[in-house]
Amino acid sequence: MHKKVSTGVPGLDEVLRGGLEGGWAYLLKGGPGSGKTIFGLQFLLEGAKRGEKVVYISFDEPKEEIVMQAESFGWNIDSPNFHLIDKVSEMDILSSDLLFIGFDSVNEIYSFVESITKLKELEDASRVFIDGMSILKDASRDPSIYRRIVSSIIQFLNRKNITSIIAEELTAEVGREIVSYLTSGEFILERVVRNDGEVFRTINVLKYRGGNAWLGRHYFDITPQGMVVHPIIPLSVGEAKKAQRIVSTGSPELDAMLGGGIYEGSDVLIAGKSGVGKTNMCLQMLIENDGRGEVGILYSFEETEEVIAHRLRTLFNYTPSKLIVRHISPYGMNLGRFYRMVMNDVEAYDPSIVAIDPINSLQRMALTSEELTRALQLLCPYLSARGAFMLQTYEVSEATDVFQFTGGGISYFCDYLILGRFMETNGELLKVIAVMKNRFGDHERTLRVLHMKSGEGLKIGEPLRNYTGLMGGVLKEV
Questions:
Q1: Does residue 463 have a pLDDT over 60?
Q2: Of 32, 310, 347, 392, whose CB is crowded by the most CB atoms within 10 A?
Q3: Which pTM does this prediction carry?
Q4: Shared-domain flag, residues 252 and 188
């Protein structure tokens, strides 16, 4: 049974369910500037911090550049446990004939392999990072020779029970390189440019033997402290809260429309065109929650903390005591980092409500709409198990006269769906709301006019029972 070895990269051990399998070799691939050297340094420094002997063997970057890169993150590799072997000069065409020899004889192959396996620095080492191994592919000419060289080095490190990471340049044949078949795991560092120009960094766990890792792409950032992975994976909450009570929205009329209120641990979605009152309905529920002495968190993508505070004072005449407002720009942010932010906030503050206004902004932070749906499907049960409910607003982009719930396939897993829309009668534009869904029971099936009055908050009228044309957007009295 291999023991787990921490990668030293925050978030990646979670993806690997505890870390790397100790004593095995792993392949790390990526293009120039993808973060391979940073990854390797963090892996080795984690070992040095634990008192392990670690070795960096570089065929790609000279010692001076590696030291400079480490210092840019505030890392000191001048440690008795940290050994840096600079093999770059051996690959220099001006100072070495290796590129011309091309490993034409068995002796040359044996000598080169020995130049690594006989390194005194490898004695009693526990971690090794080999950077730029792919340069040997160019020197060896024959792929079978390159395979023998790499295989010999990996087998030697495995016999020594050394956990090793071998870094290569990324090529088109992901997962089909020679080294891919020789290593126990393969990680790809990618720079993904979405159609709208937004750039994301991802680490693709392509292969992982001997463990139940979360395979696939995971977001990461390169921060001033190094590489940080933001996995979107399920989190355990322990024993789920069983007792569920119905809580008020703060509006008797809205409670009546919903069938009496909202169950704790449910998912509420408010959809509609811009300006129809989605954010204000969201704030009404957060105010009621705050009045109960419970924490609420609002992630606002369109309005700053100051604007939200001003709206609470002027429209609702209310100053919250436990409401946390976070203003976030979707640009420069990825879905993984937001997902982890929410998880960390929930652990720190134990809120009763987590609100996202609007959910559309998360689409700008995701590689695909399917990935966003998956993240929400993980987040909602997590909050529900803690007895908190999730409150989302969704801005419908279709024309005003089109009757549309939501886009992106997110309405089917919500427990309550409230639709707001504009309607016209006698030349006047009205805001109306309707409850379209209550997973837990019956609800009102009429539309009501929504007003906002300064200092008094939301005012919801009586059901529009004497009108027709509600679905078409033009009201006519009958």
A1: yes
A2: 392
A3: 0.86
A4: no
